[in-house]
Known about the structure:
The complex is a heterodimer of chains A (112) and B (115).
Chain A: E1 4-7, E2 10-14, E3 19-25, E4 33-38, E5 45-50, E6 56-59, E7 62-67, E8 72-77, E9 86-93, E10 100-102, E11 106-111
Parallel strand pairs in A: 2-11
Antiparallel strand pairs in A: 1-3, 3-8, 4-5, 4-9, 6-7, 7-8, 9-10, 9-11
Chain B: E1 4-7, E2 10-13, E3 19-25, E4 32-38, E5 44-51, E6 57-58, E7 67-73, E8 76-81, E9 90-97, E10 104-106, E11 110-114
Parallel strand pairs in B: 2-11
Antiparallel strand pairs in B: 1-3, 3-8, 4-5, 4-9, 5-6, 7-8, 9-10, 9-11
Amino acid sequence: QQQVKQSPQSLIVQKGGISIINCAYENTAFDYFPWYQQFPGKGPALLIAIRPDVSEKKEGRFTISFNKSAKQFSLHIMDSQPGDSATYFCAASMSTGNQFYFGTGTSLTVIP
Amino acid sequence: GAVVSQHPSWVICKSGTSVKIECRSLDFQATTMFWYRQFPKQSLMLMATSNEGSKATYEQGVEKDKFLINHASLTLSTLTVTSAHPEDSSFYICSAPGTGGSPLHFGNGTRLTVT
């Protein structure tokens, strides 16, 4: 059973546009929600993360929106650039354990 | 920041041989490390959890005799693909949780090609 559901599977955005990737989870015990960015042939790298005590976190052009009641969180990439083209994974974990549950990934292509 | 080093970044081997992949936490201690397998354009598939000082925990469907894991120290875990076959060709990635369990730091992966 997929613990974290991610959509869309792929996304094409014009340069300067907003990229939005959505994730949903079921386990209310999750209390840490990171997003990872992966370029081809490389391991995933932590992009931004949020905990349930806040509804939004912004770092530069990247923003996580978190809806605790709906058990959903999303990544927004403002002013998307071709260099943002990568695969993005959302994840969820519990601070009481080490296990991370990953979404299925979103392949983002930003066209010039 | 915390860094996980994985080596080699790519390896080509012949069928029937064994390949060892190393994963090191460079500036922190990791009692736990995770090994993933990733097929092209797919998500990360957790293979096993490597535990320092005890046996690794394998996910369902992963052959523990095929994929040998050894957590030799608080900074080193190794994955050995034994008697490799072409179907073992894949991208293998290790990771280790940072202080307090988060965040998860990934190595740069190893591209294994078995001919």
